[in-house]
Amino acid sequence: MMRISKWIGQAVVVAGVLVGGFSAAAQQSGGTFVYIVQPEPPSLASYLSTSGPIGLVAPKIYDGLFEYDNDLNIVPALAESYAISADGKTITFNLRQGVTWHDGAPFTSADVQFSVMEILKKVHPRGPNSFREVVSIDTPDAHTAIFNLENPAPYMLRALSGYESPMVPKHLLEGQDPRSADLANKPVGTGAYKFVEWKKGQYVRLDKNENYWKPGLPYLDRLVGRFIPDASTRTAAMENGEVMYGAYGAIPNIDAVRLRDMDGISVTTDGYSMINPMSLIEFDTTKAPFDNPAIRKAVSLALDRKFLIENIWFGYGKPATSALSTNFSATGLYAKGLPNYPANADVAAAKALLDEAGLKPDADGIRAKAVLDLIPYGEDWRRAGEYMKQALGDVGIELELRYEDVPTWLKRVYADYDFAMNVNYFYQLPDPVLGVHRHYGTDQIRQGTHFVNSSRYSNPKLDSLLAAGAMEADAGKRGEIYGDIQKILAEDMPVVNLFEMQFLTVYSDKLKDHATSALGAYGPFDRAWLEQ
């Protein structure tokens, strides 16, 4: 199960030197690790997009200020230590010395300032929320970065990994439009592996960074991320040893549950404790028929969440019951007993809502027609789309399914707003400010930015509650605020949450120490090694 540390709402005054050690006692160096990157990423610009396939590659190249272990404890990365002022409005990061970019240039506090203020706050999907309170960053010397905040933001300390907030080279991006810069496809980081080659349609190759700042790491000589569009071919490649690792549904659950019984192959749900993935449907709330909340609620009522989990994801998952994951119960933010989230379909209630909304069936029983776009991340999503077509057809909503390549899909949904319904999944992350607000805030209608408020839903009352929830330090009061947020979203339903996902990682038993990070496949893989 995923866990969320009980740190929100606690007053943090000073954090001393961060601790984290790496032992090479039993590990073996060398070897090429071949893993699945599914689907092929649209770019390698993790500072522009949180698209899943980018996360499978970029965090091996880019570092963050922190990493996190499987219990969500902070582990030092580019920041060796940090200190927070008594009022929570100043955070001083002491940066690691002797770190160089892959092109040999030194990493300094100027890179941190540039990465946060000019890139992450401006063009990253989640950065404007993660760093919303950061008004400036002082750099008194090359190895000190002082973040000045308008208000305390303890959630920010959980958003500093190489996946979530990559530090990028100022000397290669300054003065350029980050959306079109060459760095997007020829990345240069400080991480464990250097970018070597991207052969379109086949693979991306990363080689060991011989000057990596962690002594003795990484163990592996090379990473090769293979792009294999066909699901059955991916499964066969895992069976015959061509690839050694597949995460985030790369191996469909129907095959994963079979492979887990094979000698030499294992399956785990470890390595996902920080992301809280939620499958969902986004609507274009600006156009009929989905501009009507009653019709969006009818869609939620018509879908059988347990059927999806049991028959397509083979039991891995939990029905959604709110706009927030039940994992937020640990911090007192999850609200129970909300309407419009049935575990099993309530067809009668769905039809009644549609009738009340004036969406009457015609002679053929059809009330409305729409195109359902599907996240292009594998066969499970195609099968889910087929089920939704049938289920919504039963209440009179006739669907046409559309499945496109990743760049086309991202552009359609987040740049062109050329969609009616879109099946997707979002990471809610360790705090709602980081992963949930971007769905619903009016300020998150950011055309061209991926995985934000594509529904273009806008509610001033909700905006005020989101702002209050971000700043509230008292845990009890914060829970009340998020309870109100969830009640509004259960009635307005701009996004239909389907189920809390549990991803499976299928891997060769020869691969060791691949799940040492809370980010799993989105981690650096610097401690992974192969048993010869």
TrEMBL record:
GO cellular component, one term: outer membrane-bounded periplasmic space
Coiled coil segments of this chain: none
One Gene Ontology term of the molecular function aspect: peptide transmembrane transporter activity
Subcellular location(s) of the protein: Periplasm
Main location: periplasm
UniProt family annotation: Belongs to the bacterial solute-binding protein 5 family.
Keyword terms, alphabetized: Signal
Organism field: Pelagibius litoralis
Residue ranges annotated for the Solute-binding protein family domain, each copy included: 73-439
Signal peptide segment: 1-25
One GO BP annotation of this record: peptide transport
Name of this chain's protein: ABC transporter substrate-binding protein
